[in-house]
Design goal:
- The protein is built from eight helices and five strands; from the N terminus they run E-H-E-H-E-H-E-H-H-E-H-H-H.
- By secondary structure, the protein is an alpha/beta fold.
- Helix 6 crosses helix 7.
């Protein structure tokens, strides 16, 4: 019997890399999906490609569209990325790095691919603990999208197997995510989390994503191999 397929959203960061490894460990045949949407940190796509290959994804697709058309985020405009915020400040309000409707768009593409694969499982690496306060990373959002998806698909109408949105990291701290990734053999030196990396992908170490990553590695009690590689 062939493995059950699953679409896995893969940004190239440590969270999505861990989710890809988790889906594979659960016996799914993984189909990795990434996006070039005009983000300033497009270096993450190089990391995603390496991770998809390293973790044995059956196929890795990068979808191109341009959210710079609408703007509204420091990741898709020339607005400055916040730097040097305290950990207490992060998550207190929705930051300017929030990209309007991004996860809804990503999940919609994942849903379309899942239908063509006759696949009923989508994995996403959102987290509601050590995160930047984005509204589309919350459990209630994912439940609502899952309900909508099961109304909007052929399988939902014809009484087939229901689609499931898997968010295995949703209640995990960054340290727990890192430990799980290491247990599953994820090479975090290949990941990219920074919102404003240098030309060669060197992390700025001051944006929210870098600070949350640093907090996670510190609490996990291990050195970040990405910083060692970029030293």
């Amino acid at each position: 019997m062939s493995a059950k397929p699953a679409v896995v959203l893969l940004s190239g960061g440590l969270d999505s890399a861990t989710v890809l490894a988790m889906a594979a460990a659960q016996g799914f045949e993984t189909f990795a999906l990434s996006f070039r949407y005009g983000q300033r940190h497009a270096f993450e796509l190089q990391a995603a490609a390496q991770m998809a290959k390293r973790l044995g994804a059956r196929r890795h697709v990068v979808v191109d569209f341009d959210l710079r058309t609408f703007g509204g985020s420091a990741l898709t405009t020339d607005l400055p990325v916040p730097k040097g915020r305290s950990l207490e400040q992060i998550g207190q309000e929705i930051p300017v790095t929030y990209v309007p409707a991004r996860n809804t768009i990503f999940l919609s593409f994942a849903l379309a691919w899942a239908e063509t694969l006759q696949c009923t499982d989508i994995f996403i690496g959102v987290n509601a603990l050590d995160y930047s306060g984005y509204p589309d990373c919350r459990p209630q959002y994912l439940k609502a999208f899952e309900g909508m998806a099961n109304l909007a698909t052929r399988a939902g109408v014809e009484g087939g197997e229901s689609l499931t949105i898997h968010a295995p990291l949703i209640r995990m701290t960054k340290a727990q995510i890192i430990r799980e990734g290491l247990r599953l053999g994820v090479d975090f030196a290949l990941t990219s989390s920074c919102y404003d990396p240098g030309p060669a992908g060197r992390p700025c170490e001051r944006c929210d994503a870098c600070l949350l990553r640093a907090k996670g590695f510190a609490e996990a009690g291990v050195a970040d191999p990405l910083l060692q590689r970029c030293a």
